[in-house]
Amino acid sequence: MKIELQHPIASGDVHNIKVHGVQSKLPTTIDYIAGENILIHISFRPDQQIVVINDRVDGRWGAETRVELPASLMTPVADLKIAFNDSVATISFPEGAPAVFFRETDFSEVTGILSGAYTEFNANGGLTKTAKNGEASRRNAWFGEEQRGRIENIIASDRVYHEATAREPGLITFEVKPYHLPVLKFVVAAPVAAKDIIRVIRVRYWNAKGEVITSTPHGFAAAGYGVSEQRKHVEIRADAHVEELNLVPPYGAIQGEACVSALVGDEAVELAKAPTVAYQSTCHQWHQVGPAEAQPEHSSEKTPIIYSTSAGPFREDVLRLRPHYLSENFGRLGFGVTYIPLSDTINDMNPVPGVAQLRRSDYFLYLQHILNRPFRPGIFICSSLCDSQTFLMSDLLKERGWTILYEVRDDPEGMKAAGAGFGKWYNPHLERRMCRTADAIITVSGPLRDRAIALGAREEAVHVLPNGLEEEAFARVEQNWSEVAMRERATKRTKVGYFGHMFGGRFDIDAVGQAARGMPDIEFELIGPGLHEPAQLSAPNIKLLGQKTVDEFYALSASWDVGILPFKANRITFSLDPIKYYQYLAAGLKIVSSDVHNLRGAPLTLTYSAENSLMRMLRRSLAAPITHAERETVINYLGHVTWELRAAETLRHLGF
């Protein structure tokens, strides 16, 4: 729960806090929040008989102040007082010496106070100076509604289930048990006048220190202050909607809370009964707890490959990336591939021959399936995302003779800094360990190879293997590079196109908008997802075509003259190897790109920069027809970059 401060904390302010339930075994926390920073963190730890006071700034915890837990706090309701004096906070208990906490800056940056549990806050005058008539507003961190109450003291409580459910029937606390998946079960009553509702689940987790874990668990979106949210439209077919949801706790969690609610428009829908949490064992009786469809079966004669990746599933609405193409070609080469995407939304369990697709939430269940059956040792591929699930599987498989490959497609540290993609889950300690323990590491570019070695990988174990071109495209290569196609392109030169994701951390929307406005005679067609605010691309000569399949791209690009790769200049884009580059060449296009390491000196490619703008380089590219020598260079080049060859080379590096 969080209370918003109406005014900054000033020297002389005193906060009186009533703490409920410290006598239980669970930690109770109170945090003074400033953006992503915690300027005061108070953790009551009855199991250790201490109170810990600390701060966390820019993701780093400071030096702890520890005091003995006063006996007066081991009561149903205990009093706590915090007095502020510039950069000093004096924390006093009913007995014992006060704790003095110093900071380099004062506490005026604090914007709110957060309890590490479901709790109610009633603020005193020192917290809400603008409150009128002795009333203050408080926000329920789970549901977001505003409530009103008398200005009294702050009331904090621990995470005891019976106390939480007495306050709100949709809330439940649960333990995170080793080798078990929590399964949230709930029933939503059917509204009288509507059958389509939005069910909302919010979760929050704590670690062993009683600190709220700020990472977002799989399948949820961050809602702030350690709360993650999942919303879903559901249709009630009978009198009620019954649902079971596998929760995947983040690394280090020992305790969790979940809150279930439902909406029809802005109106809340009552739950038929309070939610419950059951547990699925990930270490025993696989055949009883694992869903049948989560058991990819391959011939016992096939060598297994498990491909755990940050890429999406095999679906028509998902752009294919390296893991999709390699999985398909491993299957063609006779391996039994289990593909585990960063998703639970899977439409087809066997999308292509030789490949079985597995939900991410069934990760541990499938691991136990492997450990309990006589699988021959195979290959485990960690593709980009080094998380706790990946390490559990790689460690156990390595003990059983499997070969571990770490595939580096992006710079995860750069993605985290840019707030892009899977970067929010990036853990430098886990990646460093993966670099040191993997049998082989394959990167898509030289800069990523150098980075892996800097993280501790053995130089001889790291190989650079760029992306490639799908087999189906080679029929188009012959057509798009024919004499007729070359003559047609040499006569028009009026259209530029882009195919791929348009996410904020990568796509250079400013450069594209500026080029389009400066070239009103040239039409720009942009294909792909991820552009949420297209106002900067509102020029009349820009067409936003949305997401398309690869086949639709080839059909649309038949009228293009140049394909663009407009990436923002940062460490992420410099080290990547864009698959669309190979597809542009197969489509018969010339390319204008930002500075990407792998594309320096690449066939038919011009590079734009601050000195030579995208518009200038597009003009140069459009003005020069493709020569027959360039045509032969491209056709020869594409013949050596097939995904089939990439798959075979990967296996060679692994000794298969």
Please tell me about this protein's structure.
This protein is of the alpha/beta class and 656 residues long. The chain has four domains: 2-158, Jelly Rolls; 162-281, Jelly Rolls; 287-464, 3-Layer(aba) Sandwich (Rossmann fold); 471-638, Glycogen Phosphorylase B (Rossmann fold), CATH 3.40.50. Helices cover 23% and strands 31% of the residues. The chain has 17 helices and 36 strands. The strands form seven sheets. Strands 1, 3, 4, 5, 6, 7 and 11 form a seven-stranded antiparallel sheet that branches. Strands 26-25-24-27-28-29-30 form a seven-stranded parallel sheet, sandwiched between helices. Strands 15, 17, 18, 19, 21 and 22 form a six-stranded antiparallel sheet that branches. Strand 31, helix 11 and strand 32 (523-527) form a beta-alpha-beta unit. Helix 3 (322-332) packs across helix 17 (643-653), helix 4 (363-371) runs parallel beside helix 5 and helix 11 packs across helix 15 (614-623). The protein is globular. The model is unreliable at 116-168 and 283-295 (pLDDT under 50).
